[in-house]
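hi! just following up on the protien thing from before. the input was this:
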Amino acid sequence: MREDPGAAAVLQRLAAEEPMYGRLHLGWGSFRNLDIIAARQSTCAFIFDINRHQLRIWQVVADVIQDCLIAEELVKRLAASLPDQPRLRRFKDSVEEWLLSDFERPESWLSTNHRSRFEYIRDLFRAGNIGIASLDICDPELYQAQSERSGVSRLASALEQLGNAEKIFTDTLYLSNIPYMLCNNSGFFGKSEWCWVSVAHDGSECNESNAVIRIMWNNLQSVISPVTLTIQANQLASGFSEEDPHWLTTVSTFQVAKARKLTENKKETTKNLLPGPITA
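and the predicted 3d structure came back as:
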């Protein structure tokens, strides 16, 4: 997804605060999640998707990165390992060229001027502190029931345990351009997204975009807090054509200062903080 406008300023803002132990990142979609984790120096993270192909890509990243000493090695191994079909949503002629272009982006987790970012992300994967899972945040059944077997409820339970045992709190939430997709009748890349949610929470037909968004936010209420920073690309950036759309990245700031009261220590940890797989 092309969401460069605004992303640099958002990442700079996220990186401006001093690192602290306990920050958890939750996110959907692309490598932008790794930019955010590196900027915030997150203690641990969950990255979700409902696209099986995207989940396969993340699993390849999780497997390959652990043995890589430098980012260039990762890129070469990913280029040889990532699945070819369906075609990756990339914006260069090859996977390798696409990833190498990120080396020049100052805020990237792959930036050649900030090698420690790649090392930080790699070490989180090595410790098992970046989890990859399938989770649909727009499942109306989760909205209606919040059953113990639902992915959101299991995630909320896991986060509560992490909070009690390790002083972990949801610091950042990345939604990519999911809100835009859900409000757009034509879908994304020509694919309708309305089939994800067929009924509203009261059983009526879900024929209004705000009903879908309401379901999404209700499902997220149990895993975020007033201190969570929400990063999303929910509007098109000006100056680009419909054939070449870009999304404007923004961050919503809540009561950030209160996050500091959740934990005072900055203890280091290499143990696996995350629970087992969480799937919808």
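Confidence is low (pLDDT under 50) at residues 143-148, 187-208, 254-267.
The first helix runs from residue 7 to 15.
cheers
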